[in-house]
Amino acid sequence: MHVLAGLVRPDAGTLTLAGHDVDFARWSPAAAFAAGVGMVHQHSTLVPAMSVPENLSFGAGAAADGIGFDPRAARAHVAALAERYGLELQLDAPVRDLSVGQRQRAEILRALARGARVLVLDEPTAALTVDETRALFPALRRLREAGCGVIFISHKLGEIEDLADRVAVIRRGRIEAVAEVGTLDAEALGRLMLGHDLPPALRRTPPSARSAAAPLFALRGVSAPGLRAASALRELALELFAGEIVGIAGIDGNGQRELEEVLAGVRPTTAGRVEVEGVETSPSVRALAACGIAQLSGERERGGLIAGMSTSENLILKGSFDDRRFFRPLRLDLAAARAHAEALIARFRIEPPDPDADIATLSGGNAQKVALARELGGVARVVLAFNPTRGLDVGVTRFVHERLLALREAGGAALVVSTELDEVLALADRVLALVEGRLVPVPAGADRARLGAILLGRAAA
User: Fold this and answer.
1) In order of start, what are the domains of the chain with their CATH numbers?
2) Contact 359, 371 (CB under 8 A)
C-alpha cells in the first residue's frame, strides 16, 4: 500500500497505471494523487485539530484560484458528499473529538471527493456498523461501474464475497493465490491467509455458579460528559464477577470512548464510583493496575502503544517507573527489560521476535499481541478490553479470544466492549447494550438480529 500511495519506493518491479509504467524515481504521494490513486489507511491520517471540511480541503488545491478557503462552501460540499454516500458525520467538531468510526468515514469521503481512479481501502469497515457498511458497499459498486478500480483489503471474508469480483490472498509479502470470488470458500481462503488450517471453533464452558463474594470489578452509577450529547455516560451500573466475561455491545459513538477514558483517568466523572472487590478505587490506569485490573485500549496507536519505542520498551511502559524489576535508582535495567520482553515474545508468539524492533514496524496483529502480552503477561485478574480484535485477521482474533477465555477459566474476569456483535455474542456470558450512554440488559439467548435491533432502538430489551 505504501508503494501504491507513493510513500515507499520499491527495490524492484513495475507499477502500471492506465497502461503506463510508473517512473519510480519520481514517484511520491503527490505523484500518486495526480495519477488518480486514492488511499484510505486503516488508521486515521487526518489533522486532529481540523474539522472534516477543513481536512477534505487541506492539500486538495481548494484555494488554487486565489480566492481562499470558503468554510461555508467547504461544509456544504462535504455535507452533500456525506449524504450521497450515506456516511453520517459531525462536520463542525475537530477530528480529535470524533469517534473512530466517524474518522474512518471522513477518510473514505476524502478519497472519494478527490475522484480517485484507483481506490485502495485498508480495512475500511473495521470501525463501521453493519448499517454503515451496507451503505458504503453500494457507493463502491457505483464507483466500479463508473470505471474506478477498487482494491478492498479486509480480513472479513464475508465482505470479500459480498463485494469483490476477484480475490487475492497475500501472506508474508507474497501473493499466495488470485481467484474469482466464489471459486474459493471461506475455509480455503482462511487456510491460504494463515498458511495452515483454521483454528478449531472456540470452546467455552458454561459459567460457574456465582459465589457470594463481592464482584471483582463494579461500576456504581457512573456518569461523565461526552464528546457529544449521545455519548455522555448516564448512571452506568455494572458488576463483573470471577469466572465470567461480560460483553458490552454498541454502535461506535454511544459512549465507548468515554468509558475507556473514564477508566484511564483522563475523563472526569460527574457521579458514581468504581469498585474493586467491594472497595472504592480511583478510576485511573495506575490505581486500577495496582488492584490487578488490566486495560486493553481500543486504539492501539492512540492510547495503547508508542511508535518510535521498541517492543521491549512498550512491554514495560505501564507501571514500570515503580517496578523494581526494571527500574533501579537513576537507571533502567535494559538487560532485565530485554529478558522480560524475550519471554513474552515467545509466550505470545510475537513476530518479529526482536525486542529491539520499533513497534511501528509490526503488523497490526503483532502490535496487538504486544499490548495483550503487557496486560495479561503478569498477575492481572481482570481485563477491561475495548475492541480487542478490531482490524485483526482470523488467526490473531482467535488468539486474543483464547487468552480472554483462559483468564476466565483461571478464575479471572473480562469486560469486553466491542462494536463487533458476533464477538460479543461468541465470548460473553452476559451481554449489555450501550445505547446513547446507557447500559441496557440484553436477554439471554438473544441473537445478532435482536441485539442489533436493541442497539438501533428498534426493539426493547
Assistant:
1) 36-164 (3.40.50.300), 217-455 (3.40.50.300)
2) no
